[in-house]
């Protein structure tokens, strides 16, 4: 069936929202792809240490890019257009894609959060960090599976969620869906804040030069933006609270904020692993002698030094008060931060 000229044309508001959605999905997905690829290259080729968190970020990247592709398809088949301007064929396809995105959203979030939690476990060896991240991982799995099932079975029969030809189906009201999605978004935000703030007490006690503090602020700034994304998405759910007959148009902002959340989460968890790259080494070459003395002029992550430097420091009997050393050895696959506070 041919598409009419009216269906092909876009109104000004439709053109704006579709261009914005396409742009944010594509740009954020490219950013995460580039940063994570550089992180994996750095870990596997330059420092030759590929840990469990690196495997997890590979999985998260694949899942996130699949969600990005699904988001592009959702826009192609009608997202950002007024419902009455979408053809019947495209509506049927859009409803299936929208339903699929709703069902796998929490799994995409889970893949990103697991990679971040495993990263924290690799970097920080404090026992309370281990317990906290383990608890969060269990919570994320249970929350994601249960939450996805609730959305997948929002109708009886489930197919009625995307097949409008089914009569006499029982489905959640839009307000009920609003309550469910808002509840999920709040829990995701709380978990994100916990992950973001957990390392702060440890980092606060480290002696680091200004350039490292600036780098950490940039990394944490990306993480803060990723945490803000679910909060902003609260306001985009208003169309469900009030009820809408223009779902394809009103749900667009919620879609691109989900994509931003996932992609910036991957970026935030990968930036600190890029220090061994030549660009970052050149950036760090301008430090002064005082900075070099306090940090050992370490090139990787939160104060990493070579195994030889660690051995030499151990022979001297101390590592320096408050020094943060990310330890590597040929017999261990994980780096460790050693916090030493010799009080005399």
UniProtKB/TrEMBL annotation:
Name the major location. Answer: membrane
| Cellular component terms (Gene Ontology) | membrane
Task: Report the subcellular localization.
Answer: Membrane
Report TM segments. Answer: 20-42, 54-77, 97-119, 131-153, 182-206, 213-235, 255-274
All copies of the Rhodopsin domain together span 38-277
| Highest taxon of source | Eukaryota
The residues the entry assigns to the signal sequence are none
* Record keyword Transmembrane helix present: yes
Q: Which UniProt keywords apply?
A: Membrane, Transmembrane, Transmembrane helix
Q: How does the UniProt record describe the way this protein sits in the membrane?
A: Multi-pass membrane protein
Q: Which family does it belong to?
A: Belongs to the SAT4 family.
Descriptive protein name: Rhodopsin domain-containing protein
Q: What is the lineage of its organism?
A: Eukaryota, Fungi, Dikarya, Ascomycota, Pezizomycotina
